[in-house]
Write a structure and sequence with these properties.
Rossmann fold, alpha/beta, binds nicotinamide-adenine-dinucleotide, globular, 19 strands, 19% strand
C-alpha cells in the first residue's frame, strides 16, 4: 500500500508508521507538528528521529487543501489521525478544535473526491468520546443513555449518572457501535463530525472506509509534553518528580486503557482487509480501570511511592465510565488478545524511564489546570482526602 498518515507524527501515527513499514508498505506523513504535542524543536523530537530516514515527512496543515492535495499524490490508503485531542481544552478553544477536526475533515474529503479513482481505503481515528456518558443498565429500564452530568450534581459530589427515565441508580456497561451518539464535549462533537464527514464522502464515492472509535490509548511514544491530555503521561511525570497527583472526582471514574500496539494492529487489519463499504468499529479492551488503579499500577511499575489527593475536582466535559463492546470488532477484523493493563503499564513505565523528563513539566501541568479553572471548566472541592500510597514493593522493604 502507498499510505498517507495525516497527523502521523503523533503518538499513534508514529507507531503505526513503523508497523506499516515493517509490513512492507510505503509511508508518507503530513503533520503540522503542533508544539503543544511535539515541543518547539522538531529535529529533537523522538518521533522525527525515528522515521526521517524511512518515511517522507512533510510539515503541513491538514486544513490546507494544497498541502493535503500534494501529500495525496500516488497515495491509495489514507490513515486520518490529525486532530486536537484535549477534551477539557476543547471546551473553551472551541474554534480551534472545530477548525482542526471538522474543517480538516472537510478539506480531506474534498481532496479525496478529486481523486476518487486513486484512493482505495480510508481509516479514520475516531473516539469513544462520541458516546458521551455512554451506556448504563437500569434495573427498571434496561440499557439507558444518560445525558452529560449536571455540574450542580458534580459540585455536590454525586459523580455517578442517574437513570434518565426514573433517576434510579445505574450500573455501567460497555458501549456498542449502534448505541446513541451524544458527545459530552466539543472534542466528542468534532470527532463525530470528523468520522461522519469521512464516512459519508467515502460512501458517496464508493471508497472503502472504516472509523475506529478508540478508547484511552496509551504506551511508548505518547506525548510527555502535552499537559492537556494523556493521564498516564501526566501521572508518571508527577510521580517521578515526587509531586502530588490530583485525582479528580472520587478517583473511581473508569477508563478502558488500550495499548498502542493493539490499536496499530487493528489499523493494519482494517487497511489490509478486503472489506468493502463503510464501517464503524470500537477499539478497546472491554476492561475498566479506576483512576486510583492507574496511580497504584504506576507506583508499582516505577517502584516508587505516589502521593496523591482525591480532590473532588472535576472537569466539565469529562465522562464517568467508559469501556468498549468488542463483539463487532472481533466479528469484523478477527479475534485478538489485548496487551493486559499490567503488562502495558510496565512497558510504558520502562519507556518513560528512558526519556529526559523536563523539569518544568509540573509547572506546565499546573498552568493548564489554572487555565481550565479560569475558564470554568475545572471546578469542585479542593482535596477531600490526601494519602501516601505504599506499594507492595515498599511494604516488603
Ligand atoms: N490517544 C488516545 O487516547 C486517543 C483516543 C481516541 C481517539 N484518538 C484519536 O487518534 C488520533 C491520534 O491521536 P494521538 O493520541 O496520536 O494524538 P497526538 O496528539 O499524539 O497526534 C495528533 C497529531 O496530529 C497533528 N495535528 C494536529 N493538528 C494538525 C493539523 N491541523 N494538520 C496536520 N497535523 C495536525 C499533531 O501535530 C500530532 O502529531 C486523533 O485523531 C485522536 O482524536 C486518540
Amino acid at each position: 500500500m502507498q499510505c498517507l498518515l495525516l497527523g502521523g507524527a503523533g503518538f499513534i501515527g508514529s507507531r503505526l508508521a513503523l508497523r506499516l513499514l515493517n509490513n512492507g508498505h510505503a509511508v508518507r506523513i503530513l503533520d503540522i507538528f503542533d508544539p503543544q504535542i511535539h515541543g518547539d524543536d522538531l529535529a529533537a523530537s523522538e518521533l522525527w528521529e525515528i522515521k526521517s530516514d524511512q518515511v517522507k515527512i512533510s510539515v503541513g496543515d491538514a486544513r490546507d487543501s494544497i498541502a493535503v492535495g500534494q501529500a495525496l499524490e500516488n497515495i491509495d490508503t489514507i490513515f486520518y489521525l490529525a486532530a486536537g485531542t484535549g477534551t477539557g481544552q476543547s471546551m473553551y478553544q472551541i474554534k480551534r478544535y472545530t477548525e482542526t477536526n471538522v474543517l480538516g475533515a472537510a478539506v480531506l474529503a474534498e481532496e479525496i473526491a478529486r481523486r476518487r479513482s486513486q484512493i482505495r481505503r480510508v481509516i479514520i481515528s475516531s473516539s469513544r468520546a462520541v458516546y458521551g456518558e455512554g451506556c448504563y443498565l437500569c434495573s427498571e429500564h434496561g440499557r439507558v443513555f444518560p445525558p452529560s452530568r449536571n455540574p450542580a450534581d458534580l459540585e455536590a459530589g454525586q459523580f455517578n449518572p442517574r437513570c434518565p427515565i426514573c433517576a434510579g441508580p445505574l450500573t455501567e456497561t460497555s458501549s456498542k457501535e449502534s448505541d446513541h451518539v451524544q458527545p459530552g464535549s466539543i472534542y466528542g462533537i468534532t470527532k463525530f463530525a470528523q468520522e461522519q464527514i469521512m464516512l459519508n464522502t467515502c460512501h458517496a464515492l464508493g471508497i472503502a472506509a472504516m472509523a475506529l472509535r478508540y478508547q484511552n490509548v496509551y504506551g511508548a511514544g505518547q506525548s510527555l509534553k502535552n499537559p492537556y491530555t494523556g493521564i498516564l503521561s501526566l501521572f508518571s511525570q508527577l510521580l517521578l518528580q515526587d509531586r502530588p497527583i490530583n485525582v479528580f472526582e472520587d478517583g473511581l471514574a473508569t477508563r478502558d486503557f488500550v495499548f498502542v500496539d493493539d490499536v496499530t494492529e487493528f489499523n493494519c487489519r482494517a487497511a489490509e482487509s478486503s472489506l468493502l463499504g463503510c464501517h464503524i468499529l470500537n477499539v478497546g479492551t472491554a476492561a475498566r480501570q479506576t483512576l486510583l488503579d492507574v496511580v497504584l499500577a504506576l507506583s508499582a511499575a516505577f517502584q516508587r511511592p505516589a502521593a496523591y489527593s482525591v480532590s473532588g475536582q472535576f472537569r466539565i466535559g469529562d465522562i464517568r465510565h467508559a469501556a468498549a463492546d468488542t463483539a463487532m470488532l472481533f466479528q469484523t477484523l478477527g479475534q485478538h488478545t489485548f496487551v493486559s493493563f499490567q503488562e502495558g503499564i510496565n512497558r510504558f513505565a520502562a519507556w518513560v524511564l528512558q526519556q529526559d523528563l523536563e523539569a518544568d513539566a509540573n509547572s506546565r501541568y499546573l498552568k493548564s489546570l489554572e487555565e481550565m479553572a479560569g475558564m470554568g471548566i475545572l471546578r469542585g472541592a479542593k482535596a477531600t482526602r490526601a494519602q501516601q500510597i505504599q506499594t507492595p514493593w515498599l511494604e516488603k522493604k
